[in-house]
Amino acid sequence: MFRSAALISFAFFAVAYGQQIGTLTPEVHPPLTWETCTASGCTTVDGSVVVDANWRYLHQVGSTTNCYDGNEWDFSICTSPTVCAAECALDGADYEETYGVTTTGDSLTLGYVTVSEQKNVGSRLYLMAAGSETEYEIFKLVNQEFTFTVDVSNLPCGINGALYFSQMDADGGVARFPTNKAGAQYGTGYCDSQCPQDIKFIDGVANIVDWTPNPQDPNDNSGTGSMGTCCVEMDIWEANSMSTALTAHSCTVTEQTSCTGTDCSAANATTGFCDQAGCDFNPFRLGVTDFYGPGMTVDTTQPFTVVTQFISSNNESTGTLSSINRLYVQNGNIIQNVNTNVAGITATNAISTEFCEQETTAFAETDTFDEKGGLAAMAEAFNTGMVLVMSIWDDTAVNMLWLDSDFPVGGTAPGDARGSCPVTSGDSATTEAESPNSNVIFSNIKFGAIGSTFSA
């Protein structure tokens, strides 16, 4: 994702955080079916989803006392990172009432603002392995394609309905970090290319050192600690009804890895483990302003299917990743991704090494994607395996302008215009007040051989 670690602002109010397993509320993962496909056809998989640990109620073991309240840790309980992990327990989730998350068959709905006993904004969920309560599903993507149907018709400017892959541990970090007792069953072990420092527990210990509440929004109970958590990230889908981006992020690390200081880095910086800016394919940013949106070629007023193909150099899963291709299916029509229309970029509708190099030159950016390993690093992560992530969020720092408006504000250079939303849009407080019932619906997830997951 484009945001830097300092800009992460998943807003979550009805939550607290931890690593032990609580017993106040049973954890029941909402079921979600999906399909694996070959040239011979597709087979249904009985999967489920789990909400991220960062959203969960965290309390002292054996009591209902919060370990984290408002946007501060209770240091009478959390006297050190390891003591906090031992003394605090994650509890089960009421997915619909607390987080606005519902599933029906192969369809997952993520609500934006949910008010029960407290207010919750957004969510982040992972696909669990079929038949398992303790491991995430692992996808190996080289020479494969991933397909889903999405409805963004109820996602206005400033809200992001995202579907992506992160190189998380299948067990949520339990094997590598024994102080993590909750694991994938309770949504632990998150990482991405932004090396986010807002994650409350990293490597099985509490991220309490130098904890600073989010200064951007006094009503947001998030913050940042001294640690971040890094890994390769493939943003299949970051979008609302106005704009969309397909973005690859490489890293020099080959598994979920904690960071501190300059290792966590920032967008466009050459230091740090990961490429935070990414090599992105946003049709509007790449010069085609009438391709994606209400009433356009890909009409966001109604559902459509998104197909992403990870092309191998030798047509084998062990080959080098040569390109990432995109197409859409809507109303029975296959819609090829649009070709770029930017001076200095050879017309293309796919992400490739040449495209990434040309894009950063055309937009006067640093090519951190290739510096951190580029498509070769992506292929290595893809062959190791990735976890599927689905989320809905707003942005208290820069109002999602990097996705759907002009960013930086007032910028007129090539690449600054990223969508048609006004630069005054996306303020999280305004969006939450005016569009609380927004949602994104992901359905009909399919994974398999190139050409096997879709038809006209």
Unreliably modeled segments: 1-17
CATH architecture: Distorted Sandwich
CATH C-level label: Mainly Beta
The end-to-end distance, rounded to whole angstroms, is: 30 Å
Give the C-alpha Rg: 20 Å
Total E-strand runs? 32
Please state the overall shape, judged from the principal axes of the Cα atoms.
globular
How many structural domains in the coordinates? 1
Strand residues, percent: 25-35%
Overall structural class, as computed from helix and strand content, comes to mainly beta
What is the CATH superfamily?
Answer: Glycoside hydrolase, family 7, domain
Tally of contiguous helical segments:
7
Largest pleated sheet: 17 strands, mixed
Helix content: 10-25%
CATH fold group: 1,4-Beta-D-Glucan Cellobiohydrolase I, Chain A
Average pLDDT number:
93
Catalytic activity: Hydrolysis of (1->4)-beta-D-glucosidic linkages in cellulose and cellotetraose, releasing cellobiose from the non-reducing ends of the chains
Enzyme class: hydrolase
Protein name: Glucanase
EC number: 3.2.1.-
